[in-house]
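In the previous chapter we treated chains in isolation. Here, by contrast, the input contains two separate entities that must be folded as one system, with a combined length of 445 residues.
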Amino acid sequence: MINPNTMLSASCILLGLWGMLNASQWLASSAHWRAEAALGWDLQGLRFSRLYRGRWLGAAFGSRIFPAIVVLHFAASLLLCILPIGWGAFSALLILAATNLLLILRSYADGGDKMAMVVTYGLLLQMIGEIAAQPLLSLSGVLWIGGQLALCYATSGLGKLILAGWRNGAVPRDVLSSFMYGNYLTHILVKHRIIALTLAWAIILLESLFPLALFAPLPVLVAALCGMGLLHLSIAFAMGLNTYVFAFIAAYPSVLLLAQHIQSVSWPNLL
Amino acid sequence: VAELLVWLVLLAVIALLLLSVWRQFNLLGRRGQLLDSLSIIPQWKFFALSTIETREDSFDDFHLLTRFADGNGEAEPWQSLLWNDERKWFHILWNPYLRANSEIQMRMMHIVNSGEAAHSEIYQTSLSYLTVLRHCLDNVWPSEGSAIQFAIVTTRGRHERPTTVRFVSAWHTA
């Protein structure tokens, strides 16, 4: 029996680690986002309509307040790692959600940012459910995170399956041979057609079949999650997408809880 | 009332999940993209966009070059400003410039994808063009009276790295 409280705490810590890494990287590259730089708001704000460019958002993304938003993002993430489940952690989650939304509006949302937001929304529901003793609210949060993660993997896998370039191993070979998305080691590996082909099909099958693991015995689900976690680590190594690791792994405790819910339902009685 | 609210939240979550499933097969407009960015109705397709098969240059490396010309119109050699090279091992833990560089590269791709239109005078006021030009001016400082020009080139694979010039900007005086 998986303890929901333990899973909720584990998710909060993993999301907090994601937030601290994300904020640190924003701070380290702050010179790129300052006014009059290429990515300064005075220029990049033009991609938004006047509504978004208005006084408040313009002020938030100005040179003085924007670093404070990033520091707040870091502080909320740190608090999320150390505070027990309760109103304090809930407030930290709210601040994390608000600051992350602002960071996304300031730049763009990569896959890691999007999954981190999904986890944040779901954890907010789970935390209110725990505090207010409303199990259905906790279930909503678990369903949201687990459902989105399963959908994310399945869509990515099936999307690859319909592309001939993935089925014959050409896409992983080209991707991992580039400097933008690969590195020297991956280039050496995918030079061999059989390795590129095996890698392509391993990714396609692992991603496409992931939702079925929700209905499988726990060891199978844990093995599937370990496989996907390893894939995210490999992607961080090959492509430098290092924030994806914590963002996606933060969703895994909810997936375990969702599987437990699914398997505890007596399906014959329902039918 | 609390019970009803809880049920409404559960129904809303189920509805959003169903909309997300639908979203994977349908591209939405600008508002839809905002819902995607804010992860309310996200779209997930990692390296599985159909454009991979229609565009031969999907996985080319994009690089940015720049050069100056003095007051006499004499052009200096090209120098690289953003050149994709071997990834560092520590990027698995610490990769702070990924987002900023990706954003600049997205703008470069946008310029290349704009084709002939990118050579028009009006295009020089577009966000992509101005961003790339500003990035050049952030990193190199032309002296007074000199002019600056940038070029976007691509390379494919790792062996020999043949370079293809994809776009050459107009000259801009400092």
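Chain B has five helices and five strands. Chain B has a mean pLDDT of 88. Compare these points with the single-chain example from earlier in the chapter.
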